[in-house]
């Protein structure tokens, strides 16, 4: 870049400073306007958390862009805002879930659990008829049902049990008019459907006779509740047996002799999930194997992809070579394919009896690529190599071209051979240059769930373990399995979150240590 | 195509509208608030369906829209995703009013309180009994059944003119036909496929769970013991003989049968679409054991969300519109699964292949819907696969280990 | 602009011992120095391309099962491609392009700004901040969907456009990862731009914003292209979060849609899937071809002084 040209740029934008300020003002005004809109909307919706977050972000934005003291933040804030909302919050929330029993059977709030229990335990009175039903409204706005039983009309509300209404008009078996009541049309009924579906009209003064309810506002049935909820005492009572259930610490209703009702709700359980994670004997054996394999898989994936990528990069780094562009383009193809798709494809190609590898390339061999423990590991690494080498190839190609030429010259003068030059100059320089990317590649592979899931599903299974885990399972796929996310056990998001926090800590610590090491390397070179 | 674009935009608009509407806090919403949120339309209904059922449900939805003035939004999902998404979304107040689903999800759905019971009333009698039973738990019906599906033996009549009576007959006929495979049964690598293999297992008298008198299951394993071990031994022998192979995936089985590489394939009506050029017959599955080979019956149906704000519409739509002969027939034509409504099933049975599946289904047993079933599948399949592939040296030992592992997992 | 390309290709031709001798090489010498490279190249290309040939073959087979189609190009027909027209494929393609491009642009803008700050300003917690950026991205995404789902529900109650089933919301979620590995890549490249340039500009009275917009950004165009490509590719293949966020079929991305075609075994249609996969690789490939010269040059300088 010539100074002359840069001067031209500055001179060309002589009024830049003023214009730039105006642009900044407009942008901030825009952000503020959107922010204020967000604040108002949050106010209306009653979302206090979002309201507070929006206000905080707005204040931060205005402070950062109108003060002189926060220069770096001016550049970092936009990305940081997204990072905070969509990543840090997400990690934090997962951390919170790790301390709850969120999962199957504890899926919702207590209110919903109570509703569900009541709804599930309301039984139609055996042998009771289907009653053609009409929704009606009394003069003071109270909803009621007009039903036809044995050809005679009856009307009632939640407060007043059904009573005969001899002067009602019937048409097609249903009530169309009742004096003293307004028959609601379909649209009104739909608007008030919450009220209609929750309305219970007692059949008689005796509660034991049950009450009429409807689900479609066309037909009513007589129901009797099996469970009753006492809001004041916060207890459930079985009307048939008289057993009383009270809420326990686990988020379930429990009777005195320890029997629990099926639907529970979400409560915080402290460190219980972490205790479970490390306390189940059945997982103790497989865990060690899986941890070792996970580390081996992640490290080997990085090493193999980097080695092949670097080798190819060096091979094609000769400017005399014709067709380099073509080679490079073709070799990038695996990278253009979504990972899950490639893994699925390979799992078909590696099928023992029908896969193209055995059938066509190896002339009908029956090599159990995905079903033998060691071959499966090899296959996983091979497929990951296929997926990952183009990326490393790209990076190394770039890095190689910019290695300082004078070092090579010096090496040549010292009489160093090709191998020595590579080992003591090229390789260390490349490593330093690509270290952060290698570390993040390690972290990515440590959690490369998609590949394992799509290629082997973790198989082949451990023969000696009593849990559905296999030789190619990595920690994250074990979490998927242990916490039932694969459907093989009741789903337990709390446990899954706790385990993913643990994994995050493992990966984070390893990476942080690796970073320190590379920084030392960097300082040395 | 053009219609689908229109539909898509309509969908987007209504979604945006419901998104606005659902902003109201559910607890404190009064009738007035609801009325102001939806000024003109008298309500809207969201229905989750998968790809094969979309068109058919759409037809029923249009009929319903025309008659009631209610908007019905059809949201297409992967069938696989529906179960987990429904469980995850309903408690948050999101999620659909109605979703399509399989009956064996029921245990999990009720344990999480995400489904509401529906009252079929007298209509219950119009359905094939097993279909309503499958959606019944503790005396309550939780789903509107629309299809019954089960596997049977599909036979290429050109290669095998006679229906085999026993398993050995079938193998003999298959060998006589001189095709590449004597018969085809799908598996899934080392994960196995216990669903498709189940009829063989029942023929040895080893059902998966104990059944109560009313047909419901209780969480006590029944697949162990002598009968189960006999089945395991048989699996090992057949695997060694090369009649069973874990490498034959669904795709491979279908393609091989379509190419005439075997006279028999064990499979369901969903395969037939690929066999349109062949002359077929559907027969009962020949039993290798001394009891009848009963496959699992799966019932497909519609569930109503426990958190639906349109429960009235949802029930009305299901009970009064999706249970009609037309709707059930349309669903049959879209998905090829025999209808659950007797009248529609009779109509569909004019096709001898459908009648064949229905006949086999009549002797079949519903797949367990108790939540414990989830812990069974994976151990079950892997053990079967390892016995067939010869990886497990001793089938009986492998089977016994499986039984104790499942017991450990159920807890 | 010219400077950038010059810098990218410059060192390559300047390598010692690589004077061009192409015209006067003996066959033996050719084999020793270049011939083997072609052998390696052909082998590598075979390894890279074979599975792709296989997909192309499956996409052209009218019977359409994947493991059952070992005879490559036994039957060639365009039915699968034609059948894509009856599906939402092209809608998904459009969605994916919109989301991919928007994410790529956003990532480049925000990542470059952050990289500039890290590269040019010295402030407390700079090193820690850089490391933290990388480490926070290592959180296993597989489970994040629960939290993302709940977050979007609450946001959607306030601003529907940021809630579930909105492409904008998905873009925002992706932009949450804008600072991360990519920032690192750019940071390294920014460091290679001589500081004397900005200092000289500052002496001439330019503000930091002027330096950034009119000088630095022009010099680092290659790395911007690279990061755009990397971001585009990762958005293109992402389906775990996308299928949680985008609920209605008309909003799906290609990855979600294609995954749907094969995820349920019974309805599997490999032919259609393969055709879709082949077509979906084209945008990525086209972008790569277009950016190739930047990529080689771009990663070059960036990684060296990272």
Automatic annotation (TrEMBL), chain A:
It holds the Pfam family BPD_transp_1. The lineage of its organism: Bacteria, Bacillati, Actinomycetota, Actinomycetes, Micrococcales. This is Maltose/maltodextrin transport system permease protein. InterPro entries: MalF_N, MalF_P2_sf, MetI-like, MetI-like_sf, TM_PBP2_N. GO terms for molecular function: ABC-type maltose transporter activity. Residues 291-514 form the ABC transmembrane type-1 domain. The chain crosses the membrane at residues 21-42, 48-66, 75-99, 290-314, 326-346, 378-400, 421-444, 493-515. Gene3D superfamilies: D-maltodextrin-binding protein, MBP, MalF N-terminal region-like, MetI-like. PANTHER family: MALTOSE/MALTODEXTRIN TRANSPORT SYSTEM PERMEASE PROTEIN MALF (PTHR47314), MALTOSE_MALTODEXTRIN TRANSPORT SYSTEM PERMEASE PROTEIN MALF (PTHR47314:SF1). Part of the ABC transporter complex MalEFGK involved in maltose/maltodextrin import. Probably responsible for the translocation of the substrate across the membrane. It is found in: Cell membrane. GO terms for cellular component: maltose transport complex. Belongs to the binding-protein-dependent transport system permease family. MalFG subfamily. Keywords: Cell membrane, Membrane, Sugar transport, Transmembrane, Transmembrane helix, Transport. It is a multi-pass membrane protein. One of its GO terms (biological process) is maltodextrin transmembrane transport.
From TrEMBL, chain B:
One of its GO terms (cellular component) is ATP-binding cassette (ABC) transporter complex, substrate-binding subunit-containing. PROSITE patterns: PROKAR_LIPOPROTEIN. Residues 1-18 form the signal peptide. CDD domains: PBP2_Maltose_binding_like. Pfam families: SBP_bac_8 (PF13416). Belongs to the bacterial solute-binding protein 1 family. This is Carbohydrate ABC transporter substrate-binding protein, CUT1 family (TC 3.A.1.1.-).
From TrEMBL, chain C:
It is found in: Cell membrane. Keywords: Cell membrane, Membrane, Sugar transport, Transmembrane, Transmembrane helix, Transport. GO terms for cellular component: plasma membrane. The keyword Zinc does not apply. GO terms for biological process: maltodextrin transmembrane transport. It is a multi-pass membrane protein. The chain crosses the membrane at residues 34-56, 97-118, 130-156, 168-190, 211-233, 270-291. Signal peptide: none annotated. InterPro entries: BP-dep_ABC_trans_perm (IPR050901), MetI-like (IPR000515), MetI-like_sf (IPR035906). This is Carbohydrate ABC transporter membrane protein 2, CUT1 family (TC 3.A.1.1.-). It comes from Krasilnikoviella flava. The lineage of its organism: Bacteria, Bacillati, Actinomycetota, Actinomycetes, Micrococcales.
């Amino acid at each position: 870049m010539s100074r002359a040209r840069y001067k031209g740029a500055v001179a060309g934008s002589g009024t830049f400073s003023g214009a730039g300020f105006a642009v900044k003002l407009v942008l901030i005004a825009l952000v503020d306007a959107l922010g204020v809109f967000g604040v108002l909307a949050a106010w209306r919706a009653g979302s206090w958390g979002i309201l507070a977050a929006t206000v905080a972000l707005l204040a931060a934005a205005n402070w950062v862009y109108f003060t002189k003291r926060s220069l770096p933040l001016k550049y970092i804030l936009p990305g940081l805002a997204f990072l905070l909302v969509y990543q840090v919050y997400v990690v934090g929330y997962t951390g919170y879930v790790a301390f709850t029993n969120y999962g199957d059977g504890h899926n919702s709030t207590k209110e919903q659990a109570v509703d569900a229990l009541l709804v599930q335990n309301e039984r139609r009175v055996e042998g009771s008829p289907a009653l053609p039903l009409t929704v009606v409204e009394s003069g003071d706005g109270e909803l009621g049902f007009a039903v036809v039983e044995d050809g005679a009309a009856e009307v009632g509300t939640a407060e007043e049990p059904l009573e005969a209404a001899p002067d009602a008009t019937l048409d097609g078996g249903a009530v169309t008019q009742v004096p003293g009541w307004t028959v609601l049309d379909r649209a009104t009924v739909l608007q008030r459907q919450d009220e209609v579906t929750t309305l219970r009209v007692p059949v008689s003064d005796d509660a034991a006779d049950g009450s009429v309810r409807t689900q479609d506002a066309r037909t009513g049935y007589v129901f009797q509740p099996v469970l009753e909820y006492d809001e004041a005492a916060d207890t459930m009572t079985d009307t048939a047996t008289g057993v009383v259930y009270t809420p326990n610490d686990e988020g379930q209703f429990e009777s005195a002799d320890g029997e629990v009702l099926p639907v529970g709700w979400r409560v915080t359980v402290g460190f219980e999930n972490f205790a479970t994670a490390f306390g189940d004997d059945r997982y103790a054996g497989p865990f060690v194997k899986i941890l070792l394999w996970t580390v081996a898989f992640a490290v080997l994936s990085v090493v193999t992809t980097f080695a092949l990528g670097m080798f190819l990069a060096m091979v094609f780094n000769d400017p005399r070579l014709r067709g380099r562009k073509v080679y490079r383009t073709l070799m990038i193809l695996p990278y253009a394919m979504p990972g899950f798709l490639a893994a699925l494809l390979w799992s078909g190609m590696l099928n023992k009896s029908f896969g193209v590898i055995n059938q066509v390339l190896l002339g009908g061999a029956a090599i159990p690529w995905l079903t033998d423990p060691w071959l499966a590991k090899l296959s996983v690494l091979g497929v990951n190599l296929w997926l990952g080498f183009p990326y490393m190839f790209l990076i190394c190609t770039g890095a190689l071209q910019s290695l300082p030429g004078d070092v090579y010259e010096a090496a040549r003068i010292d009489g160093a051979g090709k191998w020595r030059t590579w080992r003591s100059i090229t390789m260390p320089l490349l490593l330093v240059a690509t270290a952060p990317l290698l570390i993040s590649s390690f972290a990515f592979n440590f959690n490369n769930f998609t590949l394992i899931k799509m290629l082997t599903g973790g198989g082949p299974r451990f023969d000696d373990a009593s849990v559905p885990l296999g030789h190619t399972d990595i920690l994250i796929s074990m979490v998927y399995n242990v916490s039932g996310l694969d459907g093989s056990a009741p789903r337990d998001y709390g446990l899954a979150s706790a385990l993913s926090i643990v994994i995050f800590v493992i990966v984070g610590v390893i990476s942080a240590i690796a970073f320190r090491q590379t920084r030392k390397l960097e300082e040395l070179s | 195509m053009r219609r689908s674009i229109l539909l898509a935009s309509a969908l987007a608009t209504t979604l945006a509208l419901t998104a606005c509407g659902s902003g109201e806090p559910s607890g404190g919403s009064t009738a007035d608030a609801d009325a102001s949120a939806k000024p003109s339309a008298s309500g809207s209904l969201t229905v989750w369906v998968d790809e094969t059922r979309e068109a058919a449900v759409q037809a029923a939805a249009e009929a319903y829209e025309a008659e009631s003035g209610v908007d019905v939004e059809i949201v297409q999902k992967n069938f696989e995703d529906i179960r987990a998404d429904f469980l995850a979304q309903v408690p948050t107040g999101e999620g659909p009013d109605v979703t399509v689903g399989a009956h064996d999800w029921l245990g999990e759905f009720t344990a999480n309180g995400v489904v509401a019971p529906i009252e079929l009333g007298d209509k219950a009698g119009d359905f094939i009994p097993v279909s309503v039973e499958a959606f019944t738990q503790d005396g309550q019906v939780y789903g509107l059944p629309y299809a019954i599906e089960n596997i049977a033996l599909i036979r290429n009549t050109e290669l095998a003119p006679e229906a085999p009576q026993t398993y050995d007959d079938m193998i003999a006929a298959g060998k006589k036909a001189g095709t590449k495979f004597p018969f085809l049964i799908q598996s899934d690598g080392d994960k196995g496929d216990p669903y498709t293999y189940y009829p063989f297992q029942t023929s040895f008298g080893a059902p998966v769970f104990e059944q109560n008198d009313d047909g419901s299951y209780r969480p006590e394993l029944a697949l162990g013991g002598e009968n189960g071990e006999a089945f395991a031994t048989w699996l090992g022998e057949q695997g060694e003989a090369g009649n069973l192979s874990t490498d034959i995936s669904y795709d491979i089985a279908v393609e091989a049968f379509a190419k005439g590489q075997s006279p028999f394939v064990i499979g369901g009506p969903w395969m037939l679409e690929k066999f349109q050029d062949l002359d077929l017959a559907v027969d009962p599955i020949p039993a290798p054991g001394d009891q009848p080979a009963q496959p699992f019956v799966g019932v497909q149906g519609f569930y109503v969300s426990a958190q639906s704000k349109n429960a009235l519409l949802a029930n009305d739509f299901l009970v009064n519109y999706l249970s009609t002969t037309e709707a059930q027939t349309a669903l049959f034509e879209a998905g090829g699964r025999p209808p659950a409504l007797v009248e529609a099933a009779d109509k569909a049975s004019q096709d001898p292949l459908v009648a064949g599946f229905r006949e086999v289904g009549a002797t079949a047993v519903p797949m367990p819907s108790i939540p414990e079933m989830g812990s069974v599948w994976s151990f079950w399949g892997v053990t079967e696969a390892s016995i067939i592939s010869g990886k497990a040296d001793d089938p009986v030992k492998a089977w016994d280990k499986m039984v104790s592992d499942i017991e450990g997992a159920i807890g | 602009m010219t400077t950038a390309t010059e810098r990218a290709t410059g060192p390559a031709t300047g390598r010692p011992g690589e004077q061009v001798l192409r015209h006067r090489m003996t066959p033996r010498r050719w084999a020793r120095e270049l011939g083997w490279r072609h052998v390696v190249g052909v082998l590598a290309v075979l390894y890279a391309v074979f599975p792709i040939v296989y997909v192309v073959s499956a996409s052209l087979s009218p019977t359409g099962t994947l493991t059952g189609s070992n005879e490559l190009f036994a039957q060639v027909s365009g039915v699968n491609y034609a059948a894509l027209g009856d599906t939402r494929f092209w809608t998904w393609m459009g969605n994916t392009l919109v989301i991919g491009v928007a994410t790529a642009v956003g990532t480049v803008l925000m990542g470059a700004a952050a990289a500039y700050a890290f590269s040019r300003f010295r402030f407390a917690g700079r090193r820690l901040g850089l490391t933290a950026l990388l480490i926070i991205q290592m959180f296993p995404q597989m489970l994040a969907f629960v939290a993302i789902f709940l977050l979007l529900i609450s946001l959607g109650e306030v601003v529907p456009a940021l809630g579930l089933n909105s492409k904008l919301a998905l873009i925002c979620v992706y932009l949450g990862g804008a600072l991360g590995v990519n920032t690192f890549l750019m940071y390294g490249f920014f460091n290679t731009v001589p500081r004397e340039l900005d200092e000289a500009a500052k002496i001439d009275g330019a503000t930091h914003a002027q330096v950034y917009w009119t000088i630095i950004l022009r010099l680092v165009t290659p790395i911007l292209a690279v990061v755009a490509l990397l971001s585009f590719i990762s958005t293109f293949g992402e389906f775990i979060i996308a299928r949680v966020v985008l609920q209605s079929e008309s909003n799906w991305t290609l990855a979600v849609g294609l995954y749907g075609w094969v995820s349920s075994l019974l309805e599997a249609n490999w032919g259609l899937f393969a055709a879709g996969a082949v077509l979906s690789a084209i945008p990525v490939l086209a972008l790569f071809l277009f950016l190739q010269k930047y990529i080689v040059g771009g990663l070059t300088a960036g990684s060296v002084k990272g």
